Amino acid sequence: MTSRPHIRTAARIVLAAVFLGAGVLHLVVPGPFVRITPHWVSDPAQVVALTGIAELLGAAGLMIPRLRVVAGWALALYCVCVYPANIQHAVSGLTTGAGLGWAYHGPRLLFQPVIVWWCLWASTAIDWPFRRPQAAARVPPISMERI
Protein backbone atom coordinates (compact mmCIF):
# COMPACT_ATOMS: atom_id res chain seq x y z
CA MET A 1 0.00 0.00 0.00
CA THR A 2 1.46 3.35 -0.96
CA SER A 3 0.47 6.61 0.61
CA ARG A 4 -1.67 9.00 -1.34
CA PRO A 5 0.09 12.32 -1.93
CA HIS A 6 -2.93 14.41 -0.93
CA ILE A 7 -3.12 12.68 2.47
CA ARG A 8 0.55 13.34 3.10
CA THR A 9 0.14 16.94 1.96
CA ALA A 10 -2.81 17.43 4.33
CA ALA A 11 -0.82 15.83 7.18
CA ARG A 12 2.08 18.17 6.44
CA ILE A 13 -0.17 21.25 6.42
CA VAL A 14 -1.80 20.26 9.72
CA LEU A 15 1.59 19.56 11.26
CA ALA A 16 2.98 22.89 10.05
CA ALA A 17 -0.08 24.68 11.47
CA VAL A 18 0.37 22.96 14.85
CA PHE A 19 4.05 23.90 15.03
CA LEU A 20 3.26 27.43 13.83
CA GLY A 21 0.68 27.83 16.60
CA ALA A 22 2.97 26.33 19.22
CA GLY A 23 5.84 28.53 18.09
CA VAL A 24 3.73 31.66 18.35
CA LEU A 25 2.53 30.61 21.82
CA HIS A 26 6.09 29.94 22.99
CA LEU A 27 7.05 33.49 21.97
CA VAL A 28 3.90 35.41 22.93
CA VAL A 29 2.87 33.56 26.12
CA PRO A 30 6.08 31.92 27.39
CA GLY A 31 5.06 31.67 31.07
CA PRO A 32 3.36 28.25 31.00
CA PHE A 33 6.23 26.78 28.99
CA VAL A 34 8.85 28.25 31.34
CA ARG A 35 7.01 26.68 34.29
CA ILE A 36 7.13 23.18 32.80
CA THR A 37 10.80 23.37 31.82
CA PRO A 38 12.80 20.83 33.86
CA HIS A 39 14.85 22.36 36.67
CA TRP A 40 18.15 21.18 35.14
CA VAL A 41 17.64 23.41 32.06
CA SER A 42 19.53 26.65 32.52
CA ASP A 43 17.77 29.89 31.51
CA PRO A 44 14.32 28.41 30.83
CA ALA A 45 12.98 31.66 29.34
CA GLN A 46 15.70 31.69 26.70
CA VAL A 47 15.20 27.99 25.96
CA VAL A 48 11.44 28.54 25.54
CA ALA A 49 12.09 31.43 23.14
CA LEU A 50 14.55 29.32 21.15
CA THR A 51 12.10 26.43 20.99
CA GLY A 52 9.43 28.82 19.71
CA ILE A 53 11.79 29.99 16.97
CA ALA A 54 12.66 26.35 16.16
CA GLU A 55 8.95 25.51 15.83
CA LEU A 56 8.36 28.47 13.51
CA LEU A 57 11.35 27.58 11.35
CA GLY A 58 10.28 23.93 11.26
CA ALA A 59 6.74 24.86 10.24
CA ALA A 60 8.08 27.06 7.44
CA GLY A 61 10.55 24.37 6.38
CA LEU A 62 7.78 21.81 6.01
CA MET A 63 6.15 24.02 3.41
CA ILE A 64 9.33 24.62 1.34
CA PRO A 65 10.05 21.57 -0.82
CA ARG A 66 13.84 22.04 -0.75
CA LEU A 67 13.84 22.18 3.06
CA ARG A 68 11.04 19.72 3.78
CA VAL A 69 13.07 16.62 4.66
CA VAL A 70 15.57 18.56 6.79
CA ALA A 71 12.67 20.27 8.58
CA GLY A 72 11.04 16.88 9.22
CA TRP A 73 14.20 15.47 10.79
CA ALA A 74 14.75 18.66 12.80
CA LEU A 75 11.17 18.65 14.11
CA ALA A 76 11.38 14.94 14.96
CA LEU A 77 14.57 15.61 16.92
CA TYR A 78 12.91 18.62 18.54
CA CYS A 79 10.01 16.40 19.69
CA VAL A 80 12.47 13.97 21.26
CA CYS A 81 14.34 16.81 22.98
CA VAL A 82 11.23 18.41 24.51
CA TYR A 83 9.93 15.11 25.85
CA PRO A 84 11.48 15.79 29.29
CA ALA A 85 9.38 18.97 29.48
CA ASN A 86 6.28 16.93 28.68
CA ILE A 87 7.19 14.52 31.48
CA GLN A 88 7.88 17.43 33.84
CA HIS A 89 4.53 18.95 32.91
CA ALA A 90 2.75 15.68 33.72
CA VAL A 91 4.62 15.08 36.96
CA SER A 92 4.24 18.62 38.29
CA GLY A 93 0.59 18.79 37.28
CA LEU A 94 -0.25 15.43 38.81
CA THR A 95 1.67 15.91 42.05
CA THR A 96 0.30 19.38 42.78
CA GLY A 97 -3.25 18.64 41.69
CA ALA A 98 -3.15 21.66 39.39
CA GLY A 99 -3.31 21.35 35.67
CA LEU A 100 -4.92 19.06 33.16
CA GLY A 101 -4.82 15.67 34.91
CA TRP A 102 -3.97 12.19 33.71
CA ALA A 103 -6.70 12.18 31.03
CA TYR A 104 -4.60 14.74 29.14
CA HIS A 105 -1.06 13.80 30.17
CA GLY A 106 -1.29 10.04 29.65
CA PRO A 107 -2.34 10.19 26.00
CA ARG A 108 -0.04 13.17 25.40
CA LEU A 109 3.00 11.25 26.63
CA LEU A 110 2.02 8.13 24.69
CA PHE A 111 1.34 10.15 21.52
CA GLN A 112 4.82 11.73 21.40
CA PRO A 113 6.37 8.87 19.35
CA VAL A 114 3.50 9.25 16.87
CA ILE A 115 4.32 12.95 16.56
CA VAL A 116 7.97 12.06 15.88
CA TRP A 117 6.85 9.63 13.16
CA TRP A 118 4.38 12.22 11.79
CA CYS A 119 7.21 14.75 11.39
CA LEU A 120 9.26 12.24 9.42
CA TRP A 121 6.42 10.86 7.31
CA ALA A 122 4.71 14.17 6.48
CA SER A 123 8.07 15.64 5.45
CA THR A 124 8.73 12.64 3.15
CA ALA A 125 11.85 11.73 5.16
CA ILE A 126 10.36 8.22 5.51
CA ASP A 127 7.61 6.23 3.83
CA TRP A 128 7.11 3.68 6.61
CA PRO A 129 4.75 1.91 7.06
CA PHE A 130 2.98 2.67 3.81
CA ARG A 131 5.57 1.51 1.31
CA ARG A 132 6.95 -2.00 1.35
CA PRO A 133 10.74 -2.29 1.27
CA GLN A 134 11.99 -2.98 -2.24
CA ALA A 135 13.74 -6.23 -1.25
CA ALA A 136 10.54 -7.63 0.28
CA ALA A 137 8.54 -6.63 -2.79
CA ARG A 138 10.80 -8.77 -5.04
CA VAL A 139 10.55 -11.96 -2.97
CA PRO A 140 7.75 -14.16 -4.29
CA PRO A 141 5.31 -15.48 -1.70
CA ILE A 142 5.90 -19.03 -0.49
CA SER A 143 3.59 -21.51 -2.16
CA MET A 144 2.44 -24.61 -0.32
CA GLU A 145 2.99 -26.54 -3.54
CA ARG A 146 6.75 -26.01 -3.29
CA ILE A 147 6.97 -27.30 0.28
Number of helices: 7
Please describe the biggest sheet, giving its number of strands, its sense, and whether it closes into a barrel. Answer: none
Radius of gyration: 19 Å
Shape: globular
What are the secondary-structure elements, in order, as H or E? Answer: HHHHHHH
| Overall number of strands | 0
Poorly predicted regions are none
Average per-residue pLDDT, rounded, comes to: 86
Distance between the termini: 28 Å
Task: Report the helical percentage.
Answer: over 70%
- Secondary structure category: mainly alpha
- Strand content is under 5%
Keywords:
0% strand; single chain; 7 helices; mainly alpha; 147 residues; globular
In short:
The chain has helices at about 5-30, 30-35, 45-65, 70-80, 85-95, 100-120, 135-140. The chain is an all-alpha fold.
Give structural notes:
The chain is an all-alpha fold. Helices cover 70% and strands 0% of the residues. It has 7 helices and no strands. The longest helix is centred in the first third of the chain and has 24 residues, at 5-28. The radius of gyration is 19 Å and the shape is globular. The chain starts with a helix and ends in a 9-residue tail after the last helix. The relative contact order is 0.13.
Topology:
Layout: H1 5-28, H2 31-35, H3 44-63, H4 68-81, H5 83-96, H6 102-122, H7 134-138
Helix pairs in contact: 1-3, 1-6, 3-4, 4-6, 5-6
